[in-house]
Amino acid sequence: MDVVRLRRVSKRYGRRREVLADIDLQVAAGELLALVGANGSGKSTVLKLMVGLSRPSSGTVRRNARVVSYVPDVFTSHDRLSASAYLRHMGRIRGLSARAARERSDELLDRLALAGGADTPMRKLSKGNAQKVALAQALLEPPQLLVLDEPWSGLDATAHGTLSELLTETAASGAAVAFTEHSDHVVRSTATRVCKLRDGRLQVESTPTGLTEITLTAGHELDWTTQPDVLEVRRHADGVTLMLPTGRHDAALLTALNHGWSVTTVRQVRPE
């Protein structure tokens, strides 16, 4: 099911040239879409259109999501509140109980390893730590559509991996996730689909270059097409062969073993 869909979308500011031209793009539930391209190619504009912060000059944007979360490329932190107080306040605004807001904000800040701890005043946070608060804010309530503009920017190495885990978990829960990123390694290890923009036009749609092929011998009945991150299922006499993004195949292996399947081979491949 498509959570957000752009149909023949163009965007123009005043008399300037079009920022986007005739874009057709959709993001489905459970998908992790990476938008790549040079600065000025229109990536951030696409994200703002997805969440409703901008309107198209022509075309349509349809969202099938009640909870939409957005992380901008620059997060303006609050001067007076601590990171924990700010997140608890935002959680209450979103309808969480005081206890749920406190527990969820503490959990997220702990996973992201906020420097100085949850009581650190926002005004003292570095860019990378302010980004951690922005990420935590977006995930306080499980989103159905999560959109992030260069979310890895400024994060330390440990938080890089944690963010990838959080996005994968969010998609696995049924949300649609779209993000921009310059790092080819991050895109390959996180995205299930990659779209490239150049001069406001959608040029390429592909699966990441890093894929893992898993061959399984039949066990208990299981519909592999519904499993998170499974991009392709090829059935054969003895079982199935699955294609998944490299780095996100552990869950499939665990599911196979828990359902009595035997793992024959696991190997990295490149799509043709």
From TrEMBL:
A single GO molecular function term of this UniProt record: ATP binding
Pfam families tied to this protein: ABC_tran (PF00005)
Keywords from the named record: ATP-binding, Nucleotide-binding, Transport
Domain ABC transporter: 4-224
Database matches in Gene3D superfamilies: P-loop containing nucleotide triphosphate hydrolases (3.40.50.300)
Alphabetical list of SUPFAM superfamilies matching this protein: P-loop containing nucleoside triphosphate hydrolases
Protein name: ABC-type multidrug transport system ATPase subunit
Species in which this protein is naturally found: Kribbella steppae
